[in-house]
């Protein structure tokens, strides 16, 4: 194999002979690196908002050094930064919950998808309204087997991305429909779109296309990795097609065996 990392040990075999033991540790090392990167990323992401908060707190400790005009901005900034940390911690919790031991058979429970989707629609509507966006849901009467909390996370992340990365006045459409023996959920927007070179990396933890744009939107880069995980548990994969300046479509299919009707 190319670039394999081997751990080699030399052991005595007999009086005048030695034995070489080679162990392939490629995967082990790769996992270690991923874990280190992950911890470094989390620390960095938490440090940035904390630095902002501390800066303001120090200024408030000496009110003379804080011009009154800055006070309003300070409160706004502090609020946004703590919101950012809250999002990050919430998403980390969702990820770790999904990472931990398999929680029973995926066929154990039925998920009433139309009901779930209507709930998500009414939860997300105010966000879209704030941005003067149209949020349309076309929902077929199809249920499936699965884990409701994970499906909810996946769909909410896709819809909130569509809202965040679409300009004011844009349009977002969610379709849940039958395709042959399968069902398909898609979220389409006519927003910013994504350049093709980024597409293969979107579901990596902490990957963001444009970190400046995203810090304004409070993004963490964890959303799509949560979606990927949740879908893997449902034997499905996230698909995306997107064009910069035109819009994006994210979708996944649920195989016939997971459909209840
Ligand atoms: P974030 O928390 O930054 O939104 P995600 O993992 O959810 O992280 O998404 C990764 C990146 O993919 C985002 O930073 C954004 O650049 C891009 N992206 C995701 N969804 C869309 C979309 N609907 N339109 C344009 N870009 C998107």
From TrEMBL:
Class of enzymatic activity (EC top level): transferase
An example molecular function term from Gene Ontology annotations: phosphorelay sensor kinase activity
Enzyme Commission number(s) of this protein: 2.7.13.3
Stated name of the protein: histidine kinase
Subcellular location, record wording: Cell membrane
Main location: membrane
Keyword annotations: ATP-binding, Cell membrane, Kinase, Membrane, Nucleotide-binding, Phosphoprotein, Transferase, Transmembrane, Transmembrane helix, Transport, Two-component regulatory system
GO biological process, one term: cellular response to phosphate starvation
Lineage: superkingdom: Bacteria
Upper classification of the organism: Bacteria, Pseudomonadati, Pseudomonadota, Gammaproteobacteria, Alteromonadales
Residue span(s) of domain Histidine kinase: 41-258
Catalytic activity reported: ATP + protein L-histidine = ADP + protein N-phospho-L-histidine
GO cellular component: plasma membrane
């Amino acid at each position: 194999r190319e670039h394999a990392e081997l751990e080699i040990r030399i052991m005595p075999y007999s009086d005048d002979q030695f034995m070489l033991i080679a162990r392939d540790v490629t995967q082990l090392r790769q996992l270690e690196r991923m874990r280190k990167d992950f911890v470094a990323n989390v620390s960095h992401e938490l440090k940035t908002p904390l630095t902002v908060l501390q800066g303001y707190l120090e200024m408030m400790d000496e009110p003379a050094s804080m011009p009154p005009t800055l006070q309003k901005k300070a409160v706004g900034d502090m609020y946004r930064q703590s919101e950012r940390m809250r999002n990050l911690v919430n998403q980390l919790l969702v990820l770790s919950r999904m990472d931990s031991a398999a929680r029973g058979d995926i066929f154990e429970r039925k998920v009433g998808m139309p009901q779930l989707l209507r709930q998500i629609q009414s939860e997300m509507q105010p966000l879209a309204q704030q941005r003067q966006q149209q949020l349309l849901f076309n929902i077929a009467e199809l249920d499936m087997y699965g884990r409701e909390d994970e499906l909810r996370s996946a769909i909410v992340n896709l819809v909130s991305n569509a809202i965040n990365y679409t300009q004011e006045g844009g349009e977002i459409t969610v379709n849940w429909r039958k395709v042959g023996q399968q069902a398909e959920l898609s979220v389409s927007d006519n927003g910013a779109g994504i350049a093709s070179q980024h597409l293969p990396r979107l579901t990596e933890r902490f990957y963001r296309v444009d970190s400046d744009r995203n810090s304004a939107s409070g993004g963490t880069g964890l959303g799509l990795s949560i979606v990927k995980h949740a879908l893997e548990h449902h034997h499905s994969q996230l698909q995306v097609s997107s064009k910069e300046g035109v819009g994006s479509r994210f979708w996944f299919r649920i195989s016939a065996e997971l459909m209840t009707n």
